[in-house]
TrEMBL record:
Gene3D superfamilies in the cross-refs: B-lactam Antibiotic, Isopenicillin N Synthase, Chain (2.60.120.330)
InterPro entries, A to Z: DIOX_N (IPR026992), IPNS-like_FE2OG_OXY (IPR044861), IPNS-like_sf (IPR027443), Oxoglu/Fe-dep_dioxygenase_dom (IPR005123), Plant_2OG-oxidoreductases (IPR050295)
Domain Fe2OG dioxygenase: 190-294
Highest classification ranks of the organism: Eukaryota, Viridiplantae, Streptophyta, Embryophyta, Tracheophyta
Organism: Deinandra increscens subsp. villosa
A single MF term (Gene Ontology): metal ion binding
Family as reported in the entry's similarity comment: Belongs to the iron/ascorbate-dependent oxidoreductase family.
UniProt superkingdom: Eukaryota
Name used for this protein in its record: Fe2OG dioxygenase domain-containing protein
PANTHER family: OXOGLUTARATE/IRON-DEPENDENT DIOXYGENASE
Amino acid sequence: MNISVKSLAESPGLNCIPSIYAYSLTSTDPPAASDLQDAIPTIDFSLLTSPDPHLRSQMIQELDIACKDWGFFRVVNHGVPESLMNMVIEKAIEFFDLTEEEKKEFEEKDVLDPIRYGTSFNSKKDEILYWRDFLKIIVHPEFHCPNKPLGFREVLLEYSKRTREIVKGLLNGISAGLGLDQDYVEKALNLESGLQICAANLYPPCPQPGLAIGLPPHSDHGLLTLLINNGVGGLQIKHKGKWVNVNNDVPCSFLVNTADQLEIFSNGKYKSVEHRAIVNNAVTRLSVVLANGPALDAVVEPAYKLVTGERCLPAYIPMKYKEYLEMQQGNKIVGKTCLDRVRV
């Protein structure tokens, strides 16, 4: 593995980045807009799962608009205790604070290793390295977790269970918003055995933040991604051609974005959203992301009911989720190039 960004950032007297980290934004890259921050949709999970059909129907409609117009939204009133969310952040920080020797035990070898620690995105393929260290853990259908730090396993197990309930509720609402049966997505993609990966991302302070990037523009491989962080900004999403700064400043909320398999399944009605992580020179940013996808052996294609009739031809070819995942994780990360490979 290349040297971790954390140990590089902690090098005494570091005032410029090694050239391998020099990532230049192109001149065509639109500047970030912060005035849209307040426009990001908010989904009240308690209303989405309400027994009152009117309240539920209204929230399904709002969720449909959020997926169509933004591919990104906040989720509030979801029932996951704030103390548990904070503990997940705390344990992830404790993991990155372990010695390099201790972390090396979990060094990545294969993209489907149940636990993998590394730096950049795919340091074997990346021509430019990204200012980020990561820990990726497969937590479902089988649960895995590093044996350090103490208590990490119990916290992550509870967190992954609780968040799967949120994902199920959101996908039921999305299913209804697409005009399908509520459990259509759940059954078609075998969500009971769906893949859930927890990724903790560490972005240490960077002496030249304008020259480096935490993660370049990309979309995610699964259905829905849930994100929390330590209160430090750095996430930007692309909305109508502009980069929007997103701060997780709503207490006890999740940031959720639509991912590639949902774009395929909805036959392009919902687009996976491009996003990136920028860095700063003052404080460490840490995010914990849960990527939620179909079962690995599920073949993902546009929902049958959405492509019946001459005017609604499938826009994507069927592909097993496992193959898509290996294609995305095993290559360089560039925008939505993986999705382009399955377009008709």
